[in-house]
């Protein structure tokens, strides 16, 4: 959710909401690497086994958002940096500080490795969104990236 929301909000000049101080850590994986891993598991994985797919690309959320801003500044420059759109919002209650993936089993048993590093994958992703408005624009009409968990809270508070 983070990456598409940040790209599209930056493109539209909307705030880039970052939970808390942005220190939450995730392991990022380029979509085509993920698809290759799933194909490999389906073809050569042991039946009944579980394989974790990870990119060995742990980054803080704020670093991901900052990199997206840098790419947007280079690809779609504006008068001011897209970084001006970064807005810190209250963190979700119970939000995990870190999601870590141990992909050793997939790498050792099946020989899978991500082909993209974080920088190459995020640049390809940003460019894909910028070049494929036809795909995401209809989705954006029904959902503008609002924080869904707050909708019920707002209803309860006004009831």
Q: How does this model look, in words?
A:
With 159 residues, the chain is mainly alpha-helical. It has a single domain, classed as UDP-galactose 4-epimerase, domain 1, CATH 3.90.25. Helix content is 51%, strand content 9%. It is built from 7 helices and 4 strands; from the N terminus they run H-E-E-H-E-H-E-H-H-H-H. The chain has a two-stranded parallel sheet. Strands 2-3 form a two-stranded antiparallel ribbon. It is globular. The relative contact order is 0.22.
Summarize the structure.
The chain has 159 residues and is mainly α. It contains seven helices and four strands; from the N terminus they run αββαβαβαααα.
Count of beta strands:
4
Structural class determined from secondary elements: mainly alpha
End-to-end span in angstroms?
A: 30 Å
General shape:
globular
What's the arrangement of strands in the largest beta sheet?
1-4
Count of the domains: 1
Order of helices and strands: HEEHEHEHHHH
Largest sheet report: 2 strands, parallel
Broad CATH class: Alpha Beta
CATH topology: UDP-galactose 4-epimerase, domain 1
Query: Please, what is the average pLDDT?
Result: 91
Low-confidence parts:
none
User: What is the overall number of helices?
Assistant: 7
Beta fraction of the residues?
Answer: 5-15%
Helix content: 40-55%
CATH superfamily: UDP-galactose 4-epimerase, domain 1
Q: In angstroms, what is the radius of gyration? A: 18 Å
CATH architecture title: Alpha-Beta Complex
